[in-house]
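Chain particulars:
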Amino acid sequence: MSLLTRDYDFELPDELIARRPLARREASRMMVLHRAEQRIEHRAFSDFPGFVRSRSAEKNDLVVLNDTRVIPARVFSDDGKIELLFLEPAAQKNAWKCMVKPGRKLRLNNVVILGGVAGRVAEITATGERVIVFDAPVDLEKIGTVPIPPYLRREAEMLDAERYQTVYAQVPGAVAAPTAGLHFTPEILEKVPHAFVTLHVGAGTFLPVKTEQITEHAMHSERFAISENAVQKINDAKKNGGRIFAIGTTTVRVLESCIRAQAQPQKNAPLQVRSSDEIQIRATENGATDIFIYPGFEFQIVDVLLTNFHLPRSTLLMLVSAFAGREFILRAYAEAIMQRYRFYSYGDCMLIL
């Protein structure tokens, strides 16, 4: 186990970055990692339902997905000189926390005009975001665009409005997609028992860890909610010996945050591993988590993980390394590069059993 950031690095040929989605969502490749055997298998995502137990009298698995919806959060000022990324609503009426570029254009009390609506900078946070209070609601659907990841190195296109969104996206609030879910079609989703949680993915998901030691990294916070219906399905599956399939790292963060908040106040401290009938999570409408999952973490809820291939030195790569082991993950990434898998948001996926 390593807690050095440099040990979560790898070299990726530029041509393996998937800059556009495939014609069909379910056509992506799926690398399957068998943790117990340390074995790698190459499959297609269309095979995913075959890994989910759903027809036994008991021990049925449950697939848990994040139903957040990406908002058209990228906006330019009416004069075209300032780019803003709307992160989340602030406490005041018609106020938003935003990232702005260039920052020198929006100092404290400066005004910006978006779609004819004036906004004043009321606060600059310690990390540089602006809290902007607008005179009226800003119509992001009219003036904004989907904030696709910067590593795509292109402007958002019409297809991104549909494809940088899961087919089950329901709750607006994310500025990045929960990309493991992009592979699902309605037909595949219908084949597996499932439940939804909501975590609004923030801009911090793209940021690399810059500290030498992982433990010195300040994790970003994200808002989440989990309903009574989802809680009942999850608790029942765990109690009856079913496996919880987390679709994406964002789902992992919701589930493991829920159990951690109940069991222990220290957000990243080790927990005592408990039997399945002792594990119960609770519903919440207004949760927030800055949980940082890296090797040494004891998972309490998640048994299986579907995830995309992640950026080097990212908190997401560290999370999957905690789940499958750093050496196994880096061996799998090397295999993916050799086999010409497609990487990142619009790329292929990995199922970790």
